[in-house]
Write a structure and sequence with these properties.
ten-stranded mixed β-sheet; DNA Polymerase III, Chain A, domain 2; about 15% helix; 19 strands; elongated; five-stranded antiparallel β-sheet; single chain
Length: about 300
């Protein structure tokens, strides 16, 4: 008979490893991104250059969308002597999100615990304002999760800074127009020592909707051209022609929306280069931007 019915006190096993998150938001962002492409996520915990990282890499079934996330962990405890500094576990994304969804705990910390001989992972949420209360969950782990894929390094020559409020407005119009693709066109024009960019977002279904942004360009440290798709520019829109076009590609709106609808920032960085996936990047803080989420979406053409 279950211990809760017999009145016997259930003791809490000492975990073989535990990870403490003082801020749940970064973990939530990673799982949200993973949930956009896969049902089950494989978490990898590994020690790199004396620092622990939580890693997620995976793709959707058609390998048209890919997520790669890295989060530096500051509180990892290996309770068993000689415990491996690298281990993995697979859980359902939806169940993780349910376990860490505690709206009343705005400053809550999370402790994730695992046992090497168990098929479950434990989550314990602590609210510092409610010391006599703890929310806990026990999640099943799986051995048949989606294959963990690691993407090869890609070379980009364009960086696009996107205002997510404006992009979400366009995605909303796209849904109502039954549009499936987002077209991104980038033009540049030089006048004297000044180079300006014109970024055009367009969606076409039962109706056509466009957004156009004009800004002065800049250069990133790696030499990439930086352009903006935000309404904060001071330059006037200019007339374009075919010779000004430096980028023109289309991407599935559903894939982009699945990621951007959960990103908690106002601005998002995208990396672009013709013929390769669009890379959306959400920085999670840390030293040298080592904690981040990369969300890649493959381009499509008219034939597809």
């Amino acid at each position: 008979m279950h211990s809760a019915l017999t009145g016997q006190k259930r003791t809490r096993r000492h975990a073989d490893w535990s990870i403490t998150f003082d801020d749940i938001s970064s973990l939530r962002s990673i799982v949200d991104a993973a949930a956009a492409v896969m049902q089950k996520v494989i978490f990898k915990v590994a020690k790199v250059d004396e620092r622990f990282f939580l890693m997620v890499d995976g793709a959707d079934p058609g390998v048209t969308c890919f997520v790669s996330a890295r989060l530096q962990l500051h509180k990892v405890e290996l309770h068993k002597p000689n415990h491996a500094c690298e281990f993995t576990f697979c859980v359902e994304c939806s169940q993780v999100l349910t376990s860490i969804d505690i709206p009343s705990c705005t400053h809550a910390s999370l402790v994730m615990e695992g046992h090497d001989d168990s098929t479950t992972i434990h989550f314990h949420v602590h609210d510092p304002d409610l010391r006599s209360c703890e929310d806990s969950s026990e999640l099943n782990t799986y051995v048949d999760g989606d294959e963990r894929r690691v993407i090869s390094p890609l070379s980009y020559n364009l960086i696009l800074e996107i205002d997510l409020v404006k992009l979400r407005e366009l995605i909303k119009k796209a849904r109502k127009a039954r549009a499936e693709l987002l077209r991104i066109c980038i033009h540049t024009k030089t006048s004297g020592a000044k180079e300006r960019s014109l970024v055009l977002f367009s969606v076409k279904g039962e109706s056509l909707h466009k957004q156009t942004f004009c800004h002065e360009t800049s250069k990133d440290e790696d030499g990439s051209l930086v352009v903006r798709a935000a309404p904060d520019g001071s330059d006037r829109l200019f007339e374009v022609d075919a010779n000004d076009l430096i980028f023109d590609s289309m991407f599935p709106i559903s894939k982009i929306d699945a990621f951007v609808k959960t990103v908690p920032t106002r601005m998002l960085t995208a990396k672009l280069s013709s013929g390769i996936p669009l890379m959306l990047t959400h920085q999670l803080g840390g030293i040298d931007d080592e904690s981040h989420i990369h969300f890649l979406v493959a381009p499509v053409n008219d034939a597809e």
